[in-house]
Amino acid sequence: VQLQASGGGLVQAGGSLRLSCAASGRTFSTYTMGWFRQPPGKAREFVGSIAFSGRTTAYADNVKGRFIISRDNAKNTVYLQMGSLKPEDTAVYFCAARVGLGVWRDADEYGYWGQGTLVTVSS
After folding, report:
1. How would you class 81 by CB atoms within 10 Å of its CB: exposed for 0-12, middle for 13-18, buried for 19 or more?
2. Which of 49, 13, 36 is nearest to 113 (CA)?
3. In this structure, are strands 117-122 and 9-12 parallel, antiparallel, or unpaired?
4. What Cα–Cα distance (Å) separates residue 122 from each residue in 9, 72, 90, 112?
5. How confident is the model over 14-71, as pLDDT tens digits?
6. Is 114 exposed, middle or buried (0-12, 13-18, 19+ CB in 10 A)?
7. Helix, strand, or coil here: 12?
8. Are 7 and 82 in contact (CB under 8 A)?
9. Cβ neighbours, 10 Å, residue 82
């Protein structure tokens, strides 16, 4: 599967942004999808994950209650709705896919990665 993330940009603190990740292929509905981010000068970190059905999600503690991950299997797309953005949310955001069930926080579990989209939150 090939993944293409989009929707990044510059936003003020407190604002909102929605990222999209479009996937190629006809088996998108069988993939667990994840969002990760890499802040400047820091390691990549988990943001959220959604199971193939869309009914199960998981979030990192520092985004819980502010970010929502969703998917539209008919459109082969996963979304990350980000709200109440903070300067510390500034990062390159990546989407990733993993064949199988459940939600996963470990980046090593994901076999497919998009190219990343930059989100910059100004104070």
Report:
1. middle
2. 36
3. parallel
4. 11, 30, 8, 30
5. 999 999 999 997 788 899 999 999 999 999 999 999 999 999 999 999 999 999 999 9
6. buried
7. strand
8. no
9. 26
